[in-house]
# Entry
Amino acid sequence: MPVSEATAADPIAVALGRYTAYFEALSPETLSGLRDLVTPDVRFRDPFSEVTGVESMLRIFTAMYEDCTDIRFTISGSVRQQDKAFLIWRFHFKPRRLNVPQPWEVEGVTELHFMPDGRVAAHLDHWDAGSQFYGRLPLLGPVIRFLRRRLGVH
# Structure
């Protein structure tokens, strides 16, 4: 069987490609497309929140666009095993309220759990909020850097 036919016969492989493309093109105008890619009771978790349900997940992404500018996701790779996949990504953004001169970049991995029909049942983001977010904040940054030095983390 040719590779393209094998991929077409594999709904999870097709869904992983669609999900990757969705996040790389994410914008306020495309947010509602998430409803087609996830289950109604999708579980979403990142270092700041944990929610259940597509509408709750959409509220988190809507708030992201309210709190940040210059948002862009770049996905550099993926690994899949059966009904789970991992996306390796970089999130580029500028926090609105912090008046920072340069966009920030966060590196992370998203763990995806797929249903047999290809819809995502769980989207779990894994990234280091301590060094990649809190460590950059004006008041917390120096404290976190001090603690990292004291604990021998370099």
Q: What stands out?
A: The radius of gyration is 17 Å. The chain has five helices and six strands. The first strand starts at residue 38 and ends at 45. Strands lie at 38-45, 50-52, 68-81, 84-95, 104-114, 120-126.
